[in-house]
Amino acid sequence: LTDKFQNIFSTLKKKGKLSEQDVKLALREVKLALLEADVNFKVVKKFVKDIRERAVGHEVMESLTPGQQVIKIVNEELVKLMGEEKSDLTFSKESPTVYMMVGLQGAGKTTTTAKLAGSLKKSGKKPLLVACDVYRPAAIKQLQVVGGQIDVPVFTMGDKNKPVDIAKAAIESADKNGNNVVIIDTAGRLHIDEDMMGELIEIKENINPQEILLVVDAMTGQDAVNVAENFNEKIGIDGVILTKLDGDTRGGSALSVRAVTNKPIKFACIGEKLTDIEVFHPERMASRILGMGDVLTLIEKASEAIDAKKAAEMERKFRKAEFTFDDFLEQMQQVKKLGSIGDIMSMIPGMNKQMKDVEIDDKELSKVESMIYSMTLEERANPALINPSRKRRIANGSGNHIQDVNRFIKQFEQSKKMMKQFSGMMKGKGKKGLFN
Ligand code: GDP
Ligand code: MG
Fold first, then answer.
1. Which residues contact 164 (CB under 8 A, 6 or more apart)?
2. Which atom of ligand 1 is nearest to the CA of 133?
3. Ligand lying closest to the C-alpha of residue 135
4. How far does residue 402's CA lie from ligand 1's centre (Å)?
5. Over pLDDT 90: what percentage of the chain?
């Protein structure tokens, strides 16, 4: 079977250049999608301009259609926008390494302090948490509770001392007790104000932390970006931790924070549990934003949290999971590389009959693509969500009639059944690599 596929492949290689029209249409979609995702307007403008320059006249890669080529460039530019590489925490030569957590109230500093300590502890460090939020009632208690959950000591001097003095004393205590990492949880305010900044600068100047990590709530979109810009100007930050990405399906702040501050996003927090933290990978976030799913992160998380056997089970489940619009899009793009669906299906024993009447031409495919791109990521992942009013929005957004959307969704339900059989026949190849 593989040989046959390779045969079709070699006969179907396409050559050519992207026309300006191809690029223009694709970029319009991209621009709308980014703006809808609450990405900073200036960032979008520059982004689209960069892509246009790269895409027009670009040699089409042998295995990609112009549409895919644009998607590929967009993906690469998204990655670039978010900093290309993951950015690791740095450690100081002299122990202890001190990290200072800063950010507005409610951004997730205290929770993230514990999450970070938990993962550092897993990697063999001996962290000490420091309670420097002396204003918010129960803030100290909160840190003690989360510290207790990960079994990491918490240094406190109650709420009668100045944060800077607490921080200094904590570092001495870490020295004495062999803690090689100190994470300082500071107080936030609802808005940026001079008092808070003054206090943070005082701590910074007295203890000279290895890194100042700004915690921002991704759900606040552009506000998150403004906050980051402000903190960076006033006290200087070394990295950003985005929290509540589980609630932010749009990813706008992730895209703009880096571009606006020029400081790396180091971690992403994706839930309230103390294990819900992961290293921020620009390329994975880009795929997530493009709605192509994020198998790698899921599997990585799974294998960290549970043993390898269970991870394999998880992977299997993931692959078997309900077929979504994202899967459909991905399958469709795979199919486009090869030619018509009919051609391919006819090569698979037993598939001829079911597939005969499914003739989809390229125009139809682009139409379908535009509809899927007009869905929210949630809708793509969960087709059952799509009710009549959502259908209308999708039709308007993609420039199609509601009848088209209806027809497509019906077709989708049919293909869903078919694709399941298809995946079954290609078993072992998995969701990502049907044809390659
Ligand atoms: P702080 O004021 O900056 O210290 O913020 P907290 O650590 O007290 O967090 C404020 C709220 O946000 C708490 O209810 C946390 O459970 C919640 N939170 C923090 N990080 C995340 C996250 O990544 N996802 C979700 N869903 N909630 C989070
Ligand atoms: Mg707090």
1. 199, 202, 203, 206, 207
2. 4
3. 2
4. 40
5. 38
pLDDT in tens, 316-363: 444 554 556 776 676 566 555 544 444 444 443 334 344 444 444 566
ipTM score = 0.99
Tell me the pLDDT tens digit for each residue of 39-89: 778 888 888 888 777 766 655 554 455 555 666 677 788 888 888 888 999
Question: Of 107, 206, 192, whose CA–CA distance to 163 is shortest?
Answer: 206
Has 107 been labeled as part of a binding site?
A: yes
For residues 91 and 177, the answer to whether their CB atoms sit within 8 Å is: no
Q: How many whole angstroms separate alpha carbon 289 and alpha carbon 294?
A: 10
List of domains in the chain = 13-81 (1.20.120.140), 97-280 (3.40.50.300), 322-425 (1.10.260.30)
Residues with CB under 6 A from ligand 1: 103, 105-111, 188, 215, 243-244, 246-247, 269-272, 276
Structure tokens that stand for 73 in this block: 């460039």
pTM exceeds 0.80 for this model = no
Tell me the C-alpha distance between 422 and 351, whole Å.
Answer: 8
Mutation test of ligand 1: which of 243, 253, 267, 273 has the most ligand atoms closer than 8 Å to its C-beta? 243
Question: Quick one: three-class SS letters along 24-38?
Answer: HHHHHHHHHHHHHCC
Ligand 1 centroid to 265 CA: how many Å? 17
Cα 222 to ligand 1 centre (Å): 18
Each residue of 331-340: pLDDT tens digit? 566 555 544 4
Q: Which ligand 1 atom is at minimum distance from the Cα of 247?
A: 26
Helix boundaries (H) for 123-221: 139-150, 163-177, 194-207
What values do phi and psi take at 329, rounded to 5?
A: -60, -45
